[in-house]
Design goal:
- By secondary structure, this protein is an alpha+beta fold.
- The protein folds into two domains: 31 residues; 112 residues, Trna Endonuclease, Chain: A, domain 1, CATH 3.40.1350.
- Helix content is 34%, strand content 29%.
- It is built from three helices and seven strands; from the N terminus they run ααβββββαββ.
- It has a five-stranded mixed β-sheet, with helices on both faces. The protein has a two-stranded antiparallel ribbon with strand order 2-3.
- α3 links the parallel β5 and β6.
């Protein structure tokens, strides 16, 4: 009789172990991926003090200054290259943003198409590692946070 009771205890332990493994596997499978910024922050320059001060006053932590992102293209077999410059990478409440400085020679017209054409490339370059783009106007001491939602999803 003792052997029969031991058998049931062993079966119960095996069933619990299998259930625990299934649950752990499900949690691992559906856990969000850790997203790493596709850039080397060591290559960034020191943050420009005036812009960094404005950002920290608004509660953002400046992670790095200007970064140059090389872009290689191929058009009909012809190799083309360009660069995308990011002025800052910042973080607030564990959420990262790319910062682009306003340029008085190219003022921002705050229409949907202008914001898309001027800022969306910075978001696309680092999505999903960043939440959006911050447009920093040092001259007027203003910043605007732009978050993009593709397909109307929010």
């Amino acid at each position: 009789m003792a052997q029969n009771g031991d058998f049931y205890v062993l079966v119960a332990i095996c069933v619990l172990a299998v259930l625990w493994l299934l649950r752990a596997g499900k949690n691992w499978l559906f856990a969000p991926a850790k997203v790493v910024l596709p850039l080397d922050l060591n290559q960034a320059t020191e943050p420009e003090p005036e812009g960094a001060k404005l950002l920290t006053e608004e509660g953002y932590e400046v992670l790095c200054g200007k970064i140059k992102l090389p872009i290689e293209m191929n058009k009909d077999g012809q190799r083309l290259s360009s660069q995308l410059f990011i002025d800052y990478i910042v973080r607030k409440n564990h959420i990262k943003y790319v910062v682009k400085l306003a340029n008085r020679r190219q003022p921002m017209d705050w229409t949907g198409s202008q914001v898309r054409d001027r800022l969306m490339i910075y978001w696309l370059a680092y999505a999903p590692a960043i939440e959006g783009v911050i447009w920093l106007d040092k001259q007027n001491h203003q910043l605007h946070k732009v978050v993009f939602h593709i397909g109307g999803q929010q």
